[in-house]
Here is the input.
Amino acid sequence: MATTKKPAQRNTAKKSGAKTGGSRTGGTRGTSSAKRAPAAKRTVAKGTPHKSGAKRTSSSKKSSARFKLKDPRKLLRLLPILLIPALLITMILLIKDAEVKEFFTSTDTPATAQAGGSVSVEGIDVTGLSREQALSQLKPAATTLLASIDMLVKEGETELRLTPAFIEADTDLEQILDKIYDQGASGSLTLTVSASDTVLQERLSAISDAVGTPPVEPYAQARLNENNVQRFEVFEGQPGTVMDVEATAAAIQLRLAARDFQCELAPVMKDVSPTMTTAFIQENTQRIATYTTRFRDSESVETIANRVFNIRKAVEILNTCVVPPNEEFSFNGYVGLRTVDGGWKEANGITGGKEYSLQAGGGICQVSTTLYNALLRANIAVTDRKAHSIPSDYVDKGLDATVDSAGIDLKFINDTGAPLYIFAYVKPDGDRYSTVTVSLYGKPLPSGVTYECRSELVDTNERTDTRFTYSDKVPQGYELQTVARHDGYTAEVYRDKYVDGSLEDSTLLYTDKYRGNVAEITVGTGDPATVSVPEGATKCNDTSNEAG
Here is the structure.
């Protein structure tokens, strides 16, 4: 068959060509029958008909070349040849010019050494050394230099010791190496020492409050003359001093740069002015509000005399008190704990929410109540206030403010933006009464504005029942009222705003409720022959309550 004979003919042709030399030995390529025959036989072997003796065209050569290039194994062998130039071009484009130059030419030695010069750092010759070699030689010198830092910042009794780690000090060793190996610096070079400026300022700020003197603010000295007239004596302010943290840090950096490592220096100070002016004080010492309450005054009744004493003592403490702007005032905190040992006298005070008993400082709730009503009329923010359990007889219901050494307090915040001055005084009001007045001075209210407070009684709960108990400590036939009856009340408190005398607005501030209590009476069961009649006991009108 043709398919078995033609490969044999092709092999024969090749052998024949090898023996005679064919076109490879100088024969004419176009006329060589030894070359044409194998080509024709290859075509037939692949099933493509050709005329015998037909010449091979250039198109058939190209077709054969394309066929060879499409061989995958040959393409794989070409890939490295194609990729290597592309990678080199990409590297050159991505690397900086200086780095390219170093990549191809650097010897990692100083340019001065290459040119025949010399270079040293801190007296250590690094000529001809690589950067890493120079760094290894210079590190011990830099460490020794830093270890010698021991500085002291001192002002009065305040001291701050500066060590390398505390201020994060360092040298410019890396920058010096950059100058040598990148810029070609030569000669004798020295290291510069500096601290972290951020850390240094943080360390100085920690002691800044302990040095210097605060400014003295201008102030008004409040006085109440013999006629109970308020007046002020205004004093000028004085500038203070404070540490200039940035300037002090800069001074320390200069000492480090000059290698003045063991030194003592004072912080740089600057003046600081008062926050207020004398004119501001004068403009803000106007009367804002005043309030007066009335009380019984008697020297013959001890409990009443003691109450008056306590009122006068509290007023003397409170008079000319100054509350700075934005500060909270506490009545208990300012007046102090009320004890007999502390100079207070015993007078009636409410106990258990329903009865009166002798207490040290009894009666000063009238002073706290008078102050409270002045605050309401000054439109000042009251932060802590409680009503009595039994309504007071010197103000309307809902307008009282009780205080107690055990914890019940009257507090307010001076939210006026200026100092608040409290004046308080007592003066006689007839033969058997006196009054206590509290006036507030400071930043005046807006022009034409005044405030008044009022109470409206909205409910009354009458407590007409009585609770009876029996005791053999009271003789039979007698009874003793131990707790008086008090009705319960509900009151609403309003603040009215007036502008040039006309009511503009009315605001409900709060609602107070007084629970009240029933009367409590002890009925005697004791033997009249052996049990004495206690003070205040009366004969029983209703014999049904008698024991037995």
Q: What stands out?
A: Confidence is low (pLDDT under 50) at residues 1-69, 100-107, 542-548. The longest strand covers residues 449-461.
